[in-house]
C-alpha cells in the first residue's frame, strides 16, 4: 500500500483520503455515505448504465454517475441534495415504467434492491398510461428461473458470466425498450457457478428454481455453517423453516470464497430428505432387518469382542467431521487396531508433514502467483470457487500450464501433455522458462495424479519440481494439493492413516481384516470387500457402503450437526446444525461414544466441548479456528521415488461434477443437473 498515491476529496463536507483512480462512489462509501446502485458491483467491471448512483460534483454542469466517475485531488462531492434526490427519482421513474407490479408473487420480495430503493425514491403516482412491455422467458437450466420481464438491464449477470465464471453465454439484443438480456441459444448456462447469478441480480429477474414459491425471507431461521461438498471451505448460510432446509447461500469471506459459491453445495440440500438412513439395521439370515439401537450396538460388540486388533479396520469418507474421525480413531486404538485409512480413492498422500498435503500458498495467495502449473487436476469441477480465483489471475496475463487431460478451464492454459512424461520434461520447454523466471510459481497437484500405482512417485516428482523452482521457502510455499471433499484434510491432520505395521485400505478390503468399520465411506467399491468381512456402515444415506453392510448405524449429514472441518488450505472451520436428523439418526461421534461403552473402553468425552478439547490435544491446529496456519518449511521430501513415475496419462478425479458423493447422489436437483449437463461438451471432460 505504500506505493499507492492518496488524494484528498470532500464528501458532504467530510474530507477523506482515497487512492488515486478511485471512483466517486468508492470515495462516498469511505466517507460513510450510502449511494444507491443497481448495475455497480465491487467484483465486476464498471458498466455505468443504471444511473441510480447520481451525485453532484462541484462545478459539474449536471449530476454524474458516481460508479464511473474518477475523483481528483480536492474534488467536492455532494451525495444528498435536492438536485441529487430529484435526479434519482427520475431514474427510478424510468426504471419502473415497464417493471411489472408483481412484488406479491415475486421470490425476490423482501430481498429486492429495486423494492428497497423504490421506497426511498419511488413516486406515489405514475405518469405513464402506456402498456408495460413483456419479455418471453428464457431457459437458463434446471437451477435458475428467469422472469425477464422484471429485468432492468443492469448487465450484472452478463458481466459475472463473462468475467468471473468464464462462460460468455449471456448478452443483450435489441435497443431501447426492445433490449433484452438473453443467452442467444436456448440452453442451460454451462458453469458450475451459475447460482451466483441469483445472488447478484438486484431484482427478481433471476431467481432460484428449486426455491421458487417456498418461503419469504422473514419466515426463515438462519444458521452460519461451512460447505463440505468440496474442499474449498466455502462459508455458507443455511436457511430453514421448521424441519426443512429451503436454501443455502454463501457468506462473504475474502480469504476463502469472496462471496461466491459452487452449485453443488448450494443446490443439493434436498438430499437431506431423500434416501436417508433413519434407523439402525442388522443383517439376519442374509437380509438387513430393522433393529433398535441396543440391538445394533450389541450385534457389533458380539462380533468385535475377541477379535485381535490387527483383524479390525476402519475407513473414513470425505464428508466426515473431525469430531467423528477422532472418536473412531480413539475407538480403534482401544481395540488395539492400527488399520486406519482415509484415502478411499487410493491416493498416495503422505501424512508425515502438513506441507505435503495442503494448499500451502493459501487460496488468497493465488492472487500473488505469477505463474501456475496444474498437474493432474481439473479445478473447474474439483473446486469451482478456487478455479474462479485462478481465472482472475489468468486474466491478468499470468501464464497457466496444464499437465493432464485437456479440459476447458474457462481461461487460457497451455496444455503441456497428458501424463508424467510431461511432468518430467516440463522445465525443458518454453513453459519451464516461464516457471524458472517466476518469483512466486504455484504448483497445483490434483488427487487424480496420485490415485494410481505410481502416485507416491508423482507426489515426490511434483515436490522436487517445486523445490527446484525455489517455490518452497519461508516467504512463499507454492506447492499446493487440491483435495475434493471437505473432510479429507481433517482426517490427515488427525493421523487417520495406517500406523507402523497397520494395513492400508487395499489390504483391508482384500481380506486383511475380519471386521471393517466404514464411517461415511461410500466412494470405495464395495465389491472389493472380501465376502467374509463383517462390515459396519455408519452414515447418513443408503449409498454404496450401506449396500454391503452387516450393521447400519444412521448418522447425521453436515447440515444436521455441529462439526469441525478443515479445508484444502488447512483452515479449521466450524459448521453448525441447521435442522435435526430424521428418525433415530444421531450425531456420529455420539454413536461411536455409545458403541465404546459396549466394546470395553468408554471414550473419555461426553459433550461437544470435551471432544473438541480432544481434537486440540491430538493436533493443536484444531484450537485455531478460521486460520490457514501454514506449516514450517521442511528440508525432507515426501516418501516416493521421483524417478519411478510411469507413463500412463493422468485421469480426472471427478467426471460428473453434480454427483460426486453420497449426499449429492441423493439429491433430485443434482440428478436433474447431471441429466442436463454431463453430456454437454462444454461441461463434460474433454
UniProtKB/TrEMBL annotation:
<dbReference type="Pfam" id="PF13510">
    <property type="entry name" value="Fer2_4"/>
</dbReference>
<dbReference type="InterPro" id="IPR000283">
    <property type="entry name" value="NADH_UbQ_OxRdtase_75kDa_su_CS"/>
</dbReference>
<keyword id="KW-1278">Translocase</keyword>
<dbReference type="GO" id="GO:0048038">
    <property type="term" value="F:quinone binding"/>
</dbReference>
<feature type="domain" description="4Fe-4S Mo/W bis-MGD-type">
    <location>
        <begin position="220"/>
        <end position="276"/>
    </location>
</feature>
<dbReference type="Pfam" id="PF10588">
    <property type="entry name" value="NADH-G_4Fe-4S_3"/>
</dbReference>
<dbReference type="GO" id="GO:0051539">
    <property type="term" value="F:4 iron, 4 sulfur cluster binding"/>
</dbReference>
<keyword id="KW-0874">Quinone</keyword>
<keyword id="KW-0004">4Fe-4S</keyword>
<dbReference type="GO" id="GO:0051537">
    <property type="term" value="F:2 iron, 2 sulfur cluster binding"/>
</dbReference>
<dbReference type="InterPro" id="IPR036010">
    <property type="entry name" value="2Fe-2S_ferredoxin-like_sf"/>
</dbReference>
<dbReference type="GO" id="GO:0008137">
    <property type="term" value="F:NADH dehydrogenase (ubiquinone) activity"/>
</dbReference>
<keyword id="KW-0001">2Fe-2S</keyword>
<feature type="domain" description="4Fe-4S His(Cys)3-ligated-type">
    <location>
        <begin position="83"/>
        <end position="122"/>
    </location>
</feature>
<protein>
    <recommendedName>
        <fullName>NADH-quinone oxidoreductase</fullName>
        <ecNumber>7.1.1.-</ecNumber>
    </recommendedName>
</protein>
<dbReference type="Pfam" id="PF00384">
    <property type="entry name" value="Molybdopterin"/>
</dbReference>
<dbReference type="InterPro" id="IPR054351">
    <property type="entry name" value="NADH_UbQ_OxRdtase_ferredoxin"/>
</dbReference>
<comment type="function">
    <text>NDH-1 shuttles electrons from NADH, via FMN and iron-sulfur (Fe-S) centers, to quinones in the respiratory chain. Couples the redox reaction to proton translocation (for every two electrons transferred, four hydrogen ions are translocated across the cytoplasmic membrane), and thus conserves the redox energy in a proton gradient.</text>
</comment>
<keyword id="KW-0520">NAD</keyword>
<keyword id="KW-0411">Iron-sulfur</keyword>
<keyword id="KW-0408">Iron</keyword>
<dbReference type="Pfam" id="PF09326">
    <property type="entry name" value="NADH_dhqG_C"/>
</dbReference>
<dbReference type="InterPro" id="IPR006656">
    <property type="entry name" value="Mopterin_OxRdtase"/>
</dbReference>
<dbReference type="GO" id="GO:0016020">
    <property type="term" value="C:membrane"/>
</dbReference>
<dbReference type="GO" id="GO:0046872">
    <property type="term" value="F:metal ion binding"/>
</dbReference>
<dbReference type="InterPro" id="IPR019574">
    <property type="entry name" value="NADH_UbQ_OxRdtase_Gsu_4Fe4S-bd"/>
</dbReference>
<dbReference type="InterPro" id="IPR001041">
    <property type="entry name" value="2Fe-2S_ferredoxin-type"/>
</dbReference>
<dbReference type="InterPro" id="IPR015405">
    <property type="entry name" value="NDUFS1-like_C"/>
</dbReference>
<dbReference type="InterPro" id="IPR050123">
    <property type="entry name" value="Prok_molybdopt-oxidoreductase"/>
</dbReference>
<dbReference type="Pfam" id="PF22117">
    <property type="entry name" value="Fer4_Nqo3"/>
</dbReference>
<dbReference type="InterPro" id="IPR010228">
    <property type="entry name" value="NADH_UbQ_OxRdtase_Gsu"/>
</dbReference>
<dbReference type="Pfam" id="PF22151">
    <property type="entry name" value="Fer4_NDSU1"/>
</dbReference>
<dbReference type="InterPro" id="IPR006963">
    <property type="entry name" value="Mopterin_OxRdtase_4Fe-4S_dom"/>
</dbReference>
<keyword id="KW-0479">Metal-binding</keyword>
<comment type="similarity">
    <text>Belongs to the complex I 75 kDa subunit family.</text>
</comment>
<feature type="domain" description="2Fe-2S ferredoxin-type">
    <location>
        <begin position="5"/>
        <end position="83"/>
    </location>
</feature>
<dbReference type="GO" id="GO:0016651">
    <property type="term" value="F:oxidoreductase activity, acting on NAD(P)H"/>
</dbReference>
<dbReference type="GO" id="GO:0042773">
    <property type="term" value="P:ATP synthesis coupled electron transport"/>
</dbReference>
Amino acid at each position: 500500500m505504500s506505493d499507492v498515491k492518496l488524494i484528498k476529496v470532500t464528501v458532504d463536507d467530510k474530507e477523506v483520503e482515497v487512492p488515486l483512480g478511485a471512483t466517486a462512489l468508492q470515495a462516498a462509501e469511505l466517507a460513510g455515505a450510502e449511494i444507491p446502485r443497481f448495475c455497480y458491483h465491487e467484483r465486476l467491471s464498471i458498466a455505468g448504465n443504471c444511473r441510480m448512483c447520481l451525485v453532484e460534483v462541484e462545478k459539474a454542469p449536471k449530476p454524474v454517475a458516481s460508479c464511473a466517475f474518477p475523483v481528483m485531488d480536492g474534488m467536492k462531492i455532494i451525495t444528498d441534495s435536492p438536485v441529487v434526490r430529484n435526479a434519482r427519482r427520475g431514474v427510478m421513474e424510468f426504471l419502473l415504467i415497464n417493471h411489472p407490479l408483481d412484488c406479491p408473487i415475486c421470490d425476490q420480495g423482501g430481498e429486492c434492491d429495486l423494492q428497497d430503493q423504490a421506497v426511498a425514491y419511488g413516486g406515489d403516482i405514475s405518469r405513464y398510461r402506456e402498456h408495460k412491455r413483456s419479455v418471453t422467458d428464457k431457459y437458463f437450466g434446471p437451477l435458475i428461473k428467469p422472469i425477464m420481464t422484471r429485468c432492468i438491464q443492469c448487465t450484472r449477470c452478463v458481466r459475472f458470466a463473462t468475467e468471473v465464471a468464464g462462460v460468455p453465454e449471456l448478452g443483450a439484443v435489441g435497443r431501447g425498450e426492445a433490449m433484452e438480456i438473453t443467452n442467444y441459444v436456448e440452453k442451460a448456462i454451462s458453469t458450475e457457478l451459475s447460482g451466483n447469478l441469483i445472488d447478484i441480480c438486484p431484482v427478481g429477474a433471476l431467481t432460484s428454481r428449486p426455491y421458487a414459491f417456498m418461503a419469504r425471507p422473514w419466515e426463515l431461521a438462519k444458521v452460519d455453517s461451512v460447505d463440505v461438498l468440496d474442499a474449498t471451505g466455502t462459508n455458507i448460510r443455511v436457511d430453514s423453516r421448521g424441519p426443512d432446509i429451503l436454501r443455502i447461500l454463501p457468506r462473504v469471506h475474502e480469504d476463502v470464497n469472496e462471496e461466491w459459491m459452487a452449485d453443488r453445495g448450494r443446490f443439493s440440500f434436498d438430499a437431506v430428505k431423500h434416501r436417508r438412513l433413519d434407523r439402525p439395521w442388522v443383517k439376519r439370515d442374509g437380509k438387513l432387518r430393522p433393529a433398535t439401537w441396543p440391538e445394533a450396538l450389541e450385534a457389533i460388540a458380539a462380533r468385535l469382542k475377541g477379535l485381535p486388533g490387527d483383524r479390525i479396520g476402519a475407513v473414513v469418507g470425505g464428508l466426515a467431521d473431525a469430531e467423528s474421525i477422532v472418536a473412531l480413531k480413539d475407538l480403534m486404538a482401544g481395540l488395539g487396531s492400527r488399520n486406519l485409512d482415509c484415502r478411499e480413492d487410493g491416493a498416495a498422500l503422505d501424512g508425515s508433514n502438513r506441507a505435503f498435503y495442503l494448499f500451502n500458498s493459501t487460496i488468497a495467495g493465488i492472487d500473488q502467483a505469477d505463474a501456475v502449473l496444474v498437474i493432474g487436476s481439473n479445478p473447474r469441477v474439483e473446486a469451482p470457487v478456487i478455479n474462479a480465483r485462478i481465472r482472475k489471475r489468468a486474466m491478468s496475463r499470468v501464464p497457466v500450464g496444464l499437465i493432464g487431460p485437456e479440459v476447458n478451464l474457462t481461461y487460457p492454459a497451455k496444455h503441456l501433455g497428458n501424463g508424467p512424461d510431461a511432468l518430467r520434461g516440463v522445465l525443458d520447454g518454453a513453459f519451464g522458462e516461464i516457471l524458472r523466471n517466476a518469483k512466486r510459481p504455484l504448483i497445483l497437484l490434483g488427487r487424480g495424479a496420485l490415485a494410481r500405482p505410481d502416485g507416491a512417485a508423482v507426489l515426490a516428482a511434483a515436490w522436487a519440481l517445486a523445490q527446484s523452482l525455489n517455490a518452497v521457502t519461508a516467504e512463499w510455499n507454492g506447492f499446493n494439493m487440491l483435495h475434493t471433499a471437505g473432510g479429507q484434510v481433517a482426517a490427515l491432520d488427525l493421523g487417520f492413516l495406517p500406523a507402523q505395521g497397520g494395513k492400508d485400505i487395499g489390504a483391508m478390503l482384500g481380506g486383511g481384516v475380519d471386521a471393517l468399520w466404514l464411517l461415511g465411506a461410500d466412494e470405495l467399491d464395495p465389491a472389493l470387500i472380501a465376502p467374509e468381512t463383517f462390515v459396519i456402515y455408519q452414515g447418513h444415506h443408503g449409498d454404496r457402503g450401506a449396500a454391503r453392510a452387516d450393521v447400519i448405524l444412521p448418522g447425521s449429514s453436515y447440515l444436521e450437526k455441529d462439526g469441525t472441518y478443515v479445508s484444502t488450505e488447512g483452515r479449521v472451520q466450524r459448521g453448525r446444525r441447521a435442522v435435526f436428523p430424521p428418525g433415530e439418526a444421531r450425531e456420529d461421534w455420539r454413536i461411536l461414544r455409545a458403541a465404546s461403552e459396549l466394546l470395553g473402553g468408554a471414550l473419555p468425552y461426553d459433550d461437544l466441548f470435551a471432544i473438541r478439547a480432544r481434537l486440540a490435544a491430538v493436533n493443536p491446529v484444531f484450537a485455531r479456528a478460521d486460520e490457514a496456519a501454514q506449516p514450517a518449511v521442511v528440508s525432507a521430501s515426501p516418501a516416493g521415488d521421483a524417478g519411478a513415475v510411469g507413463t500412463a496419462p493422468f485421469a480426472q478425479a471427478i467426471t460428473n461434477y453434480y454427483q460426486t458423493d453420497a449426499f449429492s447422489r441423493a439429491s433430485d436437483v443434482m440428478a436433474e443437473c447431471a441429466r442436463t449437463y454431463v453430456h454437454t461438451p462444454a461441461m463434460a471432460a474433454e
